[in-house]
Amino acid sequence: MKEFKTESKRILDLMINSIYTNKEIFLRELISNASDAIDKLKFISLTDTSVDTDFKIEIVADKKHGKLIVKDNGIGMNEADLEKNLGTIAESGTLAFKKENESEKELIGQFGVGFYSAFMVADKIEVRTKKYGEEKAYRFESSGAEGYEITETSKDGFGTEITLTLKKDTDDYKYSDFLEQYKITSLVKKYSDYIRYPIETDVTRSKKKEGSSDDKPEYEDVTEKEILNSMIPLWKKPKAEVKDEDLSEFYKNEFHDYTDPLKNIYFKIEGNVTYDALLFIPAKAPYDYYSKDFKKGLKLYSNGVMIMEKCEDLLPDYLAFIRGVVDSSDLSLNISREILQQDRQVKAIATTLEKKILGELKKLLEEDRETYEKAFKEFGLSLKFGCYEMFGMNKDKLKDLIMFYSGRNEKLVTLSEYVKSMPEDQKEIYYACGENYEKIKELPKIEKAREKGYDVLFMKDGVDEFVVKILDEYESKKFKSVGETDFSLDTEGEKAEIEKKSEEFKDVLAEIKNALSGKVAEVRLTGELKTYPVCLSSKGEISIEMEKVLNSMPNSEGKVSAEKVLEISANHPIAETLKKAYEEDKEKLKKYAVVLYESARLLEGLPVDSAQSFVSMLSDII
User: Fold this and answer.
1) Helix 573-584 and helix 506-515, axial crossing angle in degrees, nearest 10
2) Residue 528: closest CA among 422, 620, 442, 451
3) What CATH code is carried by the domain that includes residue 286?
4) Which of 13, 73, 157, 539 suits 425 as a labelling partner, its CA being 20 to 30 A distant?
5) Cα–Cα nearest to 166, from 63, 53, 56, 282
6) Strand-strand pairing, 275-281 and 219-227
7) CATH of the domain at 471
8) What is the sign of the dihedral through the CA atoms of 516, 520, 522 and 528?
9) Of 42 and 612, more confident
């Protein structure tokens, strides 16, 4: 028995225990190596017409002896090849072949270690191989780091046959699963579905016996060879050959969704990094999409071999809802093919993907509004977060894709559409925030805006106000909340009247503020209310809606507080009632103050500070 070199022993131990994080990956590696072997012979067949080009890979499960066999009719190996490629770990015949034949870019195995990943599941590996064009066949046998043996053997036909003697099942891992038909099928579909040569195995199915009647059918188990892989990826086919039904079916099967996608995005990019992409916008958000448990990412392939099931770096967080696959032959892989050796290629792919997806979303908005709105209702919150996060770094990319509910038109509109519909005398973009559209519609200050014919954008999502704060303006129009103290639609004459009356009520307002014991920063008269006697507004950077959002977050402890202003309608009979109470019964005025303040909190969707005190004072007044 020959010994591996000392450094090879260390590499083998490291590889089995550290490089590969998932045991099932071994089958992908063996199939990829088989595919590479066939690629080499296929290259020879271009000039040697005697080569039999009926190429295939076969998987055989020998349950009786606990063995899994992977066969190919590729180029095979001679004694020198075995010594070089298998006897020396990390010596890659594929890499050498690529250096000699630069035009062959689609070979996968480059590091000479994938073969040894099989030791994660096998106690012993036996290789029987015969090189194309040579007479002798050879057998390589190894039980791991102890060493290996190479001897002459007999073999029909050229190619390679690898036999794994699987490890015994343990309490922690069931190695015998790799001999099960369902497991082999699922692993091939998962990792090697797009290997370009047929991968065959024996499949046993129950079939109706010939000659048995339909009334009393008899069944028997029939074992037949079946091809497990699709071979040609859908995204590699010419667009003209791919129907929408094909794309929908692929999406549902690949991503385990029962509904058709809203949109497919199908393109090829050629440049510094060449790749194919087949992307989808789902019709429904996954149940955990807006939770911390959701994991974004596209399936990443290299020449049809899946490298990562969810490559997170290919998508920004705000496009996490996009599903799909990316396939590139330009990726620099690490030795386990599980992660990337360099991230510059991924960054290059991610940059062009982002531009392409944003362009397709804009096109969808312009050409198929109904479908875009469906997508936005599911994933619009994600785009809004994209505007806000990272200090608004992406706001210019996304501001034309986000939508808000128009109070006047009662439908979603873009900011561009809102600005175009503004009356000439309207200088700002008006918005109001609340728990839902119905409650926002009933906010006190909405009435006057509606009466004057101004549209107000209704914002019910917690992130909305943060988005408009980070945007600050759109097409030189500033955003203005109807809930801010300085929001006013009064004419100059109306403002003068309010100022005059406020001077008259100065002492009344001061007494009400004192009665509320620091709960409000100011009490003032307003002409902005129509039917409501009172409302709360805010001044400063934190609005009332922001207070609610921030205090609802985990570990907030409810310490965030907006600087609140109690506004009393100057045109409502309540004003004169308050003035009379100030002059005749200041204790009654204090009760009025508490009741009005708590009423204003309820109108804003805030809880009353003290339900008991509120009910008691309301009862006293009645």
Assistant:
1) 80
2) 451
3) 3.30.230.80
4) 539
5) 63
6) unpaired
7) 1.20.120.790
8) negative
9) 42
Could you tell me what percent of the chain has a pLDDT over 90? 60
* Alpha-carbon span 98 to 93, nearest angstrom: 9
Residues 244 and 180 in one domain: no
Q: Which residues contact 446 (CB under 8 A, 6 or more apart)?
A: 407, 432, 440, 456, 482
Matching residue, tokens 């929408």: 244
Helix 25-45, helix 181-191: angle, nearest 10 = 60
Structural domains in the chain (count): 3
Burial class (CB in 10 A: 0-12, 13-18, 19+), 251: buried
273 falls within a domain: yes
Query: Considering the domain boundaries, does residue 381 fall inside one?
Result: no
- Phi, psi torsion values for 294, nearest 5 degrees: -70, 135
| Burial class of residue 570 in the structure, from the number of CB atoms within 10 Å of its CB (0-12 exposed, 13-18 middle, 19+ buried) | buried
Residues 422 and 451 in one domain: yes
Residue 21 pLDDT greater than 80, yes or no: no
| pLDDT per residue as tens digits for the range 191-228 | 999 898 999 999 988 888 887 777 778 888 888 999 99
pTM of the entire structure?
Answer: 0.76
The Cα–Cα gap between 56 and 224 comes to 16
- Helices and strands (H, E) in the chain, number of each type: 19, 22
pLDDT of residue 329: 82
**Cβ 595 vs Cβ 621: under 8 Å:** yes
Alpha carbon of residue 326 to chain centroid = 14
Phi, psi of 374 (to 5 degrees): -60, -45
Helix (H, G, I), strand (E, B) or coil at 216: coil
Q: Which two tokens stand for residue 273?
A: 């990094």
Residue-wise pLDDT for 418-461, tens only, equals 999 999 999 999 999 999 999 999 899 898 888 888 999 999 99
Reported as a single tens digit per residue, the pLDDT across 461-513 is: 999 999 999 999 999 999 999 999 989 988 899 999 999 999 999 999 999 99
Three-class SS of residue 398?
A: helix
Residue 238 lies in a domain: yes
Distance from C-alpha of 566 to C-alpha of 579, rounded to nearest angstrom: 16
Question: Could you tell me the two tokens for 91?
Answer: 């010596």
Inter-residue contact 326 to 273 (CB < 8 Å): no
